Amino acid sequence: MSLLQVQVLGFILVVAFIAAFAGHRLAVADGAAGGKAWGWAGLSAAATVVDLGTVYSALELSKGSPSPARIGAAVLGVLCAVAVAVVAYGLAGATVSRGCRWCVTATAFSVAMSVFAVMINLVG
């Protein structure tokens, strides 16, 4: 395992911790009980690990430094996922709670990243 891989995995863990904290705080702000708030925290962390793992796989970091073509494809995929998430945020509407709106947005982003992972593996 190279130093780059160790650093990326460490980064994924730190970001997952931050996402879990944010998910917990949003759940508490929405009035969720203790168990439900921790459920949101766990889902936030899991989605973060999956999304960043998708980028890790798309860049093929397990094979060493990524090629410029792989970097471009990964950036394009993430930008498309962000566009889908922005649309989902807008469609969620202001009538739902803030936590629910962000949950819909995060779900849309994760689904778009999963589609990106399938497409990048099919295209090669």
UniProtKB/TrEMBL annotation:
Alphabetic keyword roster: Membrane, Transmembrane, Transmembrane helix
Transmembrane segments: 39-59, 71-92, 104-123
Keyword Transmembrane found: yes
Protein name in UniProt: Integral membrane protein
Species: Streptomyces milbemycinicus
